[in-house]
Design a protein that fits this description.
The protein is 34% helix and 22% strand. The protein is of the alpha/beta class. The chain has one domain: Spore Coat Polysaccharide Biosynthesis Protein SpsA, Chain A (Alpha-Beta Complex).
Length: 239
């Protein structure tokens, strides 16, 4: 099963004043009929073996999130509220810890709630490829082919083809690579060189992995974050 984990806790400061502290961009109708949050979940319609989404959001937006999910006909598996944002790793850790209790082999699909994806069919195809790798224990990140040098994004340098690493394959594979390097927000000259090289993608912030395998990596590299999230879950309140 794929469990979407939607990261909806951002404040959208770069879109101010349209996006405000208590009404950030992911809650706005910017592209199409739904809000960006609603569209993030609705564009997953048709994905095979899709579970109910987990929504990670700011406590200040709890009623907005609940209202928008209900208006879109979506019943989340849970809405997890942060008193303030702690970025991606803790949100992933909380979702994985919750998923691990019921199904450690569940595949988590981590999605920011503020993306515009026009080619949904191609997006679903990328998810199908990512799922094959996630099932075999790989941690998958989705890159975006850059169309210009951009200094505000992180970059991923692609290495060799990852396809030979799979034990089992549906035969429907393309554009899967081992990641050689992550680079954070380069200067303009470096960004131009990356785009011209053809071997760098923008880091989309979308990820796919099993709950058990991502927790194994988090416990190895950032055990303090996992311990803090375990404590937060233990002491958290549910209603």
């Amino acid at each position: 099963m794929i469990i979407p984990v939607v990261l909806a806790g951002g404040s959208g400061t770069r879109l101010w004043p349209l996006s405000r502290k208590f009404y950030p961009k992911q809650m706005l109708h910017l592209t199409g009929d739904g809000t960006m949050l609603q569209n993030t979940v609705l564009r997953l319609s048709g994905v095979d073996r899709l579970g109910a989404p987990m929504i990670i959001g700011n406590a200040a937006h709890r009623f907005l999130i609940r209202q928008q999910m209900a208006a879109a006909g979506i019943t989340p598996a849970g809405i997890f509220l942060e008193p303030f944002g702690r970025n991606t790793a803790p949100a992933v850790a909380v979702a994985a810890l919750r998923a691990e209790k019921t199904d450690p082999d569940a595949v988590l699909l981590v999605l920011p709630a503020d993306h515009l994806i026009r080619d949904v069919q191609k997006f679903h195809h990328a998810l199908k490829i990512g799922r094959q790798f996630a099932r075999e224990g790989f941690l998958v990140t989705f890159g975006i082919v850059p169309d210009r040098p951009e200094t505000g994004y992180g970059y991923i340098r692609q290495g060799k083809s990852a396809n030979p690493l799979l034990q089992k394959s549906s035969g429907d594979l393309d554009s899967a690579y081992v990641i050689d390097e992550f680079v954070e927000k380069p200067n303009l000259e470096t960004a131009r060189r990356y785009v011209d090289s053809g071997i760098y993608c923008w880091n989309s912030g979308m990820f796919m992995f099993s709950a058990g395998h991502v927790l194994e990596a988090l416990r190895r590299f950032v055990p303090d974050i996992v311990r803090a999230c375990e404590k937060a879950i233990e002491n958290g309140q549910a209603d």
